[in-house]
Amino acid sequence: MLRTNTCGELTISNETQEVTLCGWVQKSRDLGGMTFVDLRDRYGITQLAFNLEVDKPLCEKARTLGREFVVKATGFVKERESKNKNIPTGEIEIIVTAVEVLNESKTPPFTIEDDTDGGEELRMKYRYLDLRRNPLKKSLALRHKLGFEVRKYMNDQEFFEIETPYLIKSTPEGARDFVVPSRMNQGEFYALPQSPQTFKQLLMVAGYDRYFQLVKCFRDEDLRADRQPEFTQIDCEMCFVEQEDILNTFEGLMKYLFKSLKNIELADFPRMDYAIAIKEYGSDKPDIRFGMKFHELNDLVQNKGFNVFDQAELVVGICAEGAANYSRKQLDALTDFVRKPQIGANGLVYVKCNEDGTFKSSVDKFYSQEDLQEWSNEFGAKAGDLILVLAGNTNKTRSALNELRLEMGTRLELRNPNEFSPLWVVDFPLLEWDENSERFHAMHHPFTSPKNEDYHLIKTDPGKVRANAYDMVVNGVELGGGSIRIHDKELQEKMFDLLGFTEEEANSQFGFLMNAFEYGAPPHGGIAFGLDRIAALFGGSDSIRDYIAFPKNNSGRDMMIDSPSPISSEQLDELQIELQTKHV
Amino acid sequence: MLRTNTCGELTISNETQEVTLCGWVQKSRDLGGMTFVDLRDRYGITQLAFNLEVDKPLCEKARTLGREFVVKATGFVKERESKNKNIPTGEIEIIVTAVEVLNESKTPPFTIEDDTDGGEELRMKYRYLDLRRNPLKKSLALRHKLGFEVRKYMNDQEFFEIETPYLIKSTPEGARDFVVPSRMNQGEFYALPQSPQTFKQLLMVAGYDRYFQLVKCFRDEDLRADRQPEFTQIDCEMCFVEQEDILNTFEGLMKYLFKSLKNIELADFPRMDYAIAIKEYGSDKPDIRFGMKFHELNDLVQNKGFNVFDQAELVVGICAEGAANYSRKQLDALTDFVRKPQIGANGLVYVKCNEDGTFKSSVDKFYSQEDLQEWSNEFGAKAGDLILVLAGNTNKTRSALNELRLEMGTRLELRNPNEFSPLWVVDFPLLEWDENSERFHAMHHPFTSPKNEDYHLIKTDPGKVRANAYDMVVNGVELGGGSIRIHDKELQEKMFDLLGFTEEEANSQFGFLMNAFEYGAPPHGGIAFGLDRIAALFGGSDSIRDYIAFPKNNSGRDMMIDSPSPISSEQLDELQIELQTKHV
To answer: I want to staple B46 with a disulfide (CB 3.0 to 4.6 A). Which of A229, A556, B7, B29 is the partner?
Structure first.
């Protein structure tokens, strides 16, 4: 090694040792006769000291070292006069006897500090410099440890990590595939996996009993802020299990991860029916760090002459504790919030529960003090609380109130990023109605099994059939989801039929799976977690990009390597494809 | 769980316990009043026993269980009368009280036995059945453990596993890329990585110090027997290192893997110059489990009137110990062997060292007993040995003699699969001349650094310049290779120039890397191992396919899912590409 030690490990116990360090110049300071250089590597920062009187040429050389120069320095460890208690190496410095510049650096386009002055685009282009900053270094270190601990737990539970192929087959169901033209099979294409779903099921048919894999998955979707075209899943499957077994096994995984990465002991996860989650939180991934549950008010508020409520399918509200002192301006801001196009409410009704027992509402014209007292009773509101009510179409109103609840949770500081409230949401519907295509879609995916006790409804009222499907949610973030699968060929065929597949389509796309079901398919089920999301949650960040070494921007571009890019006509010819002429 | 125990764990210590097992019917036997069913799962096989007299309906039900039926059986553990010492559960059987068929099975198209009657193609199509066989189960279990232990070692050595992107940029240098059309950036393409080479170098520029990743890589090559279009690498890179540091770190990894997976303590790995490997073994990946080194004979044998030798650029041979008793037929077989087109020699000269001290050769016409004694002396041959000599063009002859040496090693049983002889081959040439394009190619890749002491030859005699490049070889198999990289922008530019890149080509393909070199790039180097190959070596197999759950055939097809396949015209339109019309 070019060094004897890293920049993060020398302490007073190493005093008088001769050492050689390598790293990057974080900063340097000239103080009269002394020059100090902070040398940085992955492990920490160590102060190099140069004395102008003792060795003038060396000190002058030190004064030429610019930021981000790569330097090799040899010297002796010495106790510092003014100690820095904030860093592990803060008690010592290196009295340098020789210094070598291993590589120079141009001035970086932004500062390599915890808070940088670089904009998003510039930092994406120079990602290798952005990655030098501490916050990103910590993110990737956490992600490494996360992956390692996942594997440790799964290995201890006798899961095998088995790699499934990346060059697979395109299936129009679900999101859009990335495809790969085949040169050896011209006119044909591979697809990149959206998930290894069918392969992990085949591994169960093959008797592998417990499978997992940390695996890249691909979706060619229009990107939202928190999506990437390639993302990493912890993909898992088990044989001879019922839903409870999956929940227990992976609740165990999450508890283990919280303990080993954050030293937090989580209590048993509560379970919530999907129907309850929707009714009480307006979301299938409720943040239960705080209450503020929905209360439905139709019976209380309708037929009192207030047209907006009378015509609404649903009138529903929340009670924000201690927010009765909100000013006109604050209430207007909330109204503006719910009216934003992405929230979509028409307006907001409020009731302040005054300290003197009276109520002040935005609908005083229509509702008496006695009426409002009834509302207040419904919420169990106390003096000082603020009731917020939305009305309209059921689904849209629940969805809007969910956003308002989260906003109020944030404003009232009820969403502490250092507190973690996990839960399982269970009993998802098997199917959801799609207005556009006017048919049912699989809510989870076409391989999910219906609940036995609901199966009789499959023809008469398919929307009512619940599935053996479940999501793990922490702090309002869906970390993972899965289901007990169908393992019976006939049932799988019926399912494809229900989802609008013709027999030919089902066979050409999933024939191999249905064939496999004829050769002794065991009962099985599984789950998949979003590794990027878990990393972000553990790191206390909302953005998964900070936990991906080389992410893409919202147009799916890698700004650093400038990809995608045109390819040569020779490459196109070899693949026997051509670009369509654009019709302007 | 549907079971209380697995089929691999019950022993005499569980006697009288009531248990429930789930698994597949391996086979069943009716012996008079008893029916025995072998139930199999990932963990083993347990015998189920049914007594016709005790419970006739149950026993009759058991007699309907076909091979590969999935069964759940409850009963009591009982000591067996006739024990099977070959399996861990062989002392007990289950006296079954209830049995449930969880799923039936059609008769499999081949037997699920260690030695199956299924042909390659059938087994590929029904891979999920082939994977039920013990040899494949052991292969995938070994691969799982291998990956886990690699990660354990690397984590202990403070390497971070960091995921690099799969959707990157096409670079014509090297093998052919698989490409992925971009929908959001029309007319442009991503490429799948042939290796994460540039990304790992950028992680070093970013200061991550020690990186590794188990990662899929992709090459669109015409497939040879032991190649797959997608394969897995253990990809590694380190900062502030010299060649010795890489060799020591990864020799440590391999020793650790041999110890933890095979309980073998390997001695320190010998190191061999590339030039020596070529001269003495005719290969850059010599199998050194046995000697049989090359001896060059030009000085001894030329100008004695034997035209074939006189006109040869190289006359070179090996001495096969104890093979002087080879029959005419055996010698003819060897001649046929070296004459095969893929070996390419014109003929084979032999000298038998007889027990009586005389010599018998195929060139007695031209060489006296004294001449042959001199040959024998050159090889240090003993009575009973067989000298085999080839002649011709240097490279071709060495290559042919390498094959003959390996063949003789096999015939003389010198290549014991349970013996492991690792070595490092070092000092590879930087460049190799390509006859077709009439220019130099990078022997490793364009990022490999030349040796300082050879650098002065770069203009005058570039073929002589050695690189800081190395391969790890075990038993004649190249398990991995790497190099110390260039970290200087100017040198990297010169290298691209030497390799025939125009400045524009170099910039458009690798501009991001050369830019990165201007911002404080540290000295760095690394290595990449073929995980599939390591697994096959450890498993004692020549075929990597047995260590890949879902491999592709030689046409790059997945026979099971029948991929690649045509995609819809809607998909093509969205991607703005079309298939070229074939010109018949």
So the answer is: B7
